[in-house]
Amino acid sequence: MYYVDRSQIERRLDLLPRISQVLAETAAADEDKLMLRFAEERALHLAIEAITDVGSYLIDGFIMRDASSYEDIVEIMRDESVIDHELALQLTGLVRLRKPLVQEYVDWDRSHAHELSAALPGVLRAFSIRVKAYLDQEGIQAYIG
Which residue in 12, 98, 110, 125 is the catalytic one? Predict the structure, then answer.
């Protein structure tokens, strides 16, 4: 029997539409105000953390192999058929931004919207759908207590 905390996973998945909204708005903005760029940075960072948190919950709960990096979390989800190859490629591109966003933030280019921002709302929606379908397929219900 597996212990997968679906409620914690869903809390993170429930945040993705709001993150997507910020990314869509900042990507579509005609102007490049600093406030928009900082909002975009934070939304990208939150998207990365939500994706990797969900992956970690799945890895721990289903006793999958241990991840060696953030990119490996995505690879494990692909290997375990939580997500498909194309979605894994898109999410890997996203998680690769973690180091620049968190450690190299002084060098982050804030002169325009990041190239991933426009595509990410669809990617995040697809991720959420796939994770919920995987949990359903595995018979994991939300804990009600």
Answer: 98
